[in-house]
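Entry for the shared binder. Reason: the reviewer on the internal report wants the predicted structure included alongside the sequence.
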Amino acid sequence: MAMTTTPSSGEPDAHGSDGDQRGSPRADGRLRRVWERRASRLAVGVVAAAVALTAAAVALAQGIGTFRDVPDNDYARDSVQWAVQNGITFGCLDGTYFCPDRPVNRAQSVTFLYRYQNNVISSLENRIRALESGSVQTPDQNAGFGNQPTPTTVPLRQFTTRATQHQTRSFNIAAGIYTAVFTLEATKAADAHNQDTDADLEPVTLIQVEYRENSSSSWKTYAVSTLNLGGTGGGTLPTAAALFQQAPASGTVDVEIANVPGRLPTSGQMRVSAYMADNTVTPNDADSDPDRTTRYDFSWGIILTEKRS
């Protein structure tokens, strides 16, 4: 007895066109191969695009130390950024997450220590050796602990940070003399600021860099008193024609970083504040000093670059 087979549900009986079941096997085979090649190329293209997008996201996260699960206001943000920029960690999952609450195992612990030794400690040791041998490039070729005029390319240390008027930034900088520049970009002119709900304008009179030490709650300015806009000895405040300003107006100023009174400490927090004339900010206070306002919108940046004498 002859037996017949029935095609599976949804599968055509043959591959001819328009329901014609008399299609040529040779033509059907060529058609299948063409579609298979096209489907393969499409799949490869989709995978390549996904890989490229993921790689771009990972490069961005790993380049500046920002991750989806570490927001700007997270207390560990600056520490995470430092660890990434020093090559100690590269995030988790697809590289755009940090996984701050995930436990660290023994293998990961020693890996972090190994990277810290290679990327941070070793570079400092090499720098000390270069200084002790007198091989650091200076205006005086014989300067240093030794008298060997062999120049080297030890890079200058640099600290750069940016934020808005509502944010503070942690810093950890090696002691020394640094050239500094302070930049600010406002959303409106300083003399067009209205602090309250009435029509009178209460213009901003001073914008300055402030810092506080880790062991203190008070904000200070004397160690960076030259980094300000407006006020006594300050630069030009942002105007409608020039919302971007910097201090000093040209060049840089020197800032000494040291853990002694009257100097910018080696670690702490930094912010930039806008001030208005006394008692233009309500409620009125008892002193005669300018009053700080957080309603004047701006973004700021600080660049400190090691200075070699």
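Summary line for the report: Residues 25-64 form the longest helix (40 residues).
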